[in-house]
Write a structure and sequence with these properties.
The complex is a heterodimer. By secondary structure, chain A is of the alpha+beta class. Chain A has 3 helices and 11 strands; from the N terminus they run βββββαββααββββ. Chain A has a 6-stranded antiparallel sheet with strand order 1-11-3-9-7-6. In chain A, strands 2, 4, 5, 8 and 10 form a 5-stranded antiparallel sheet that branches. Chain B is an alpha+beta fold. Classes of the chains: A alpha+beta, B alpha+beta. Chains A and B meet through α1 and α2 of A and α1, α2, α3 and α5 of B.
Chain lengths: 205, 260
């Protein structure tokens, strides 16, 4: 196995990289309970991008859970496989609840939280590097984020269950631009109320 | 002043748990619903019937209401919304369920944009269920027939928009539940004459597609979807939807800023 890059993303920070088909990205939750928000685009035409709803519909049709986990295939808005989860120590990866933003924080946690760092600020910063903007900010995956949808319909963010050093491996099925926000949120339990660094390793066989 | 960047994890947790407890208390004691009003004839702007498999692209002014009915109980209709004054602002499926602590969208609940603003309020609902998690169907379910994903793109095109502008949507008349094991279940087609009414809280472009929910098992719609658009009024200070929760009130504060 050939390591192409190996970086530590500081707490609260954005990150992006292009994966070539066949390469594997490992996202490591170094200290535990750290949500990692991720967007995915076809590297050659970014209007083809990850679709959470199409992915969940396919998962549901296959009898799988509403959490992504080992074997989940992340589909694009053209129903094409973008990435496959090929290893996973956690099993709880949300793709229903979206990314936090300054604006949604005002509704959920009060207007006093408007000027706190959020994932969509990170994403917009990173999208700008690729000539993209808010119209390109679509559905995402929240790795290591525990968002149960209960039988009574309640949807909450609960304490994360990932352990120190927990990881998920994503194999690219096409050339994929990956944008990551190492989630800065402290107003709900998605980061154990204390954002921490993550490590990202890209490799190929 | 409270330094929100400097609290301890325990203090942040206490804030979150207080919000969660308030949401659970509200869910446990729902208020009585307002009566469903008759639509005055002189307020009607448009009436239309969408044949199975088709869609419409319609404009709604702030304060307009759209009452959507499903006379034959077809299993789903996909909806997407844009702010007509700034199309980069659009329906946000994740925020809509997260900000309201529930996937059960019915009378009193709101459809949120990505900007923390209320785009539309659910002002009446027969209770058939509406799903913001799984959304529209696609060629996977519809085969070569017409499908929700492409219909929403076609509707977007009528406003000069592209697939870049279509995000996760809301599937009306679609009852989905989850079990303790974390799996989705489709609860069957809606009853005939299911109805839901939305009031526009900002000027909207709306895409409405008469196509089934992806888990319905139906490749094609089984009946028409009808709608009436009529002139109503924006949410009043004591409006049922506006005061339904602290979150709702804060969302309306954000929307009202656009029209102050």
């Amino acid at each position: 196995m050939n390591i192409i890059s190996d970086v530590v993303v500081p707490a609260r920070a954005p990150y992006s990289a292009t994966l070539h088909a066949g390469q594997v990205m490992r996202i490591i939750d170094l200290e535990s309970q750290q949500a990692v928000d991720a967007l995915f685009y076809n590297a050659h035409d970014t209007t083809e991008r990850y679709s959470a709803q199409d992915t969940l519909a396919a998962e549901a049709a296959a009898g799988r859970k509403f959490y992504l986990g080992l074997g989940s295939v992340l589909l694009s808005n053209e129903m094409r496989p973008m990435l496959t989860v090929v290893a996973d120590t956690c099993g709880f990866h949300d793709t229903s609840a979206g990314a936090c933003s300054c604006e949604s924080n005002t509704v959920r946690f009060g207007h006093e939280t408007r000027f706190m760092q959020s994932c969509r600020e990170n994403f917009l910063t990173e999208l700008g590097k690729y000539g993209m903007g808010k119209r390109d900010l679509v559905s995402n995956v929240n790795f290591f984020m525990n968002v149960p949808i209960r039988p009574n319909g309640e949807l909450t963010v609960d304490d994360g269950v990932s352990k120190p050093g927990g990881y998920v491996d994503l194999r690219a099925e096409m050339d994929v631009l990956v944008l990551i926000s190492n989630c800065p949120q402290v107003n709900n339990p998605c980061n154990g109320f204390k954002p921490t660094p993550i490590r990202i390793i890209i490799s190929e066989s | 002043m409270l330094d929100l960047d400097g609290l301890t994890p325990e203090q942040y947790r206490a804030r979150y748990e207080a919000l969660q407890a308030a949401a659970r208390a509200r869910a446990a004691t729902p208020p009585p619903l307002p009566a469903i009003s008759n639509i005055p004839d002189d307020a009607v702007v448009k009436r239309e019937r969408i044949p199975p498999g088709w869609y419409v692209a319609v404009r709604l002014k702030r304060g307009d209401a759209i009452r959507i009915t499903n006379p034959a109980g077809t299993p789903g209709a996909a909806l997407f919304l844009w702010n007509a004054d700034d199309i980069s602002e659009r329906y946000n499926a994740g925020d809509t369920v997260k900000l309201q602590w529930t996937t059960k969208l019915t009378t009193g609940k709101l459809l949120f944009s990505d900007m923390g603003r209320v785009m539309a309020s659910i002002t009446a609902d027969s209770g058939a269920g509406h799903d913001s998690i799984l959304g529209a169907n696609s060629p996977v379910q519809a085969g070569a027939g017409r499908n929700g994903r492409d219909n929403l793109r076609l509707a977007a095109a009528k406003f000069g928009l592209t697939r870049q502008d279509v995000g996760p949507c809301l599937s009306l008349f679609s009852s989905i539940s989850t079990d303790d094991a974390g799996r989705f279940h489709y609860n069957g087609a809606p009853p005939a004459n299911a109805m839901v009414e939305l009031r526009a809280e900002m000027n909207l472009f709306a895409a409405l597609s008469n196509t089934p929910h992806p888990l319905s098992g139906a490749a094609a719609a089984t009946g028409p979807v009808e709608f009436v658009i009529y002139r109503a009024a924006p949410a009043s200070a004591d409006d049922f939807c506006r005061i339904s929760s602290e979150e709702a009130s804060r969302g309306f504060i954000n929307t009202d800023e656009l029209f102050a």
